[in-house]
Amino acid sequence: MTSKLQASGLTSNIMPLAFPRGKEKFCELCKREAYLQCTQCQVTFYCDAKHQQADWVGIHERICHLLVPIRSQIDIPDQAARRENQLRKTKLIEICRLVAQSKLSEGKHEEALPAAHCLLYTSIDVHGPNTIQLIPAYLLLAEANMGLDNLAAVAELLSQAEWAVLKSPESGPLIQHQLHRSLGRFHTSAGNLEDALYHFANDIYFASEEYGLDSITTSKGYFLMADIFVRQGKVLIGRSLYSKVAQTWHNHLSGLLKTHVKIPQNCDVSSDSFYEISQQVEMDEMLRAMLEFEQKQFRRDAAQTALLAHCLAMLWLLRGDFQKVLGFGSTALQASQQIPKHDLTESIQRLLQQVQSLQTEPQPGSG
């Protein structure tokens, strides 16, 4: 481990310490007694170099400077200074939430844990224990542990989230939808498919209350429920739900293209478009899964194949990847041409022509 830390330059950020009895410090990640200190902020401590490295990669590099005024000012008599410190903590909560979401969208479950832990501890500091404001942290921690197959930890975290909801009668459909979606995914991982269906049904109900029945957020619940039905051998039901998801996303992506919305390929997690990008990464995986499912069927539905491939082509046009647009667009066109006078054929052809013209345009400075 020492050689790895030296190679990454992280050894310059830690200092071995021995604290007097009664003034012990505790590890940022595991809360065991700490023996190392971050030399930059000097307010963060670790039990060993492994946890220091995990925290640095996961979140600490981004928030090191922000922790100094927050943790060094414990008792602040001045009211204006207290408000300023509270604003810093609110900013810290938002950064941790976005970083945890970013790591999870990239499939980096272990790297997401430090940000999610910091989110939970800071939220408790600001809002108190067992409050509804802690639920985002519980759910992000649960998702990270689910990705690491730590189902016992997931069960405990979701129990804490359920308890917070029970103690908060004001919790609205947004919180309920997020909780039921996490519970549904947990029961799916545990193999409790009927329980998973129950929670996904509640997820869809509360998501439709918050966003509408035909929203893209609600459609994820339909997708997760369809996956359960397929696993149970109820392929026709699953296929029907997949079709609803595909139509919802086709409408959404068509609308984005009409308004000429462009989403950059690289985006800082603190920017407003971060959520849209992480959401589109997830949607790419969902659409690909549905397309692969359809292509494996004995009797393929050409209309569904065209719809899904067209969705993927539009998605990647928004992301600016012309090669993927042409690949999925060609698949969509071939499927649509199997159906006489199919209503998507013309729009798919226009999309392919648009991309081909963009590829032939001279680039700035090329002349």
UniProtKB/TrEMBL annotation:
Name of the protein described by the UniProt record: MYND-type domain-containing protein
Keywords associated with the record: Metal-binding, Zinc, Zinc-finger
Stretches assigned to the MYND-type domain: 27-64
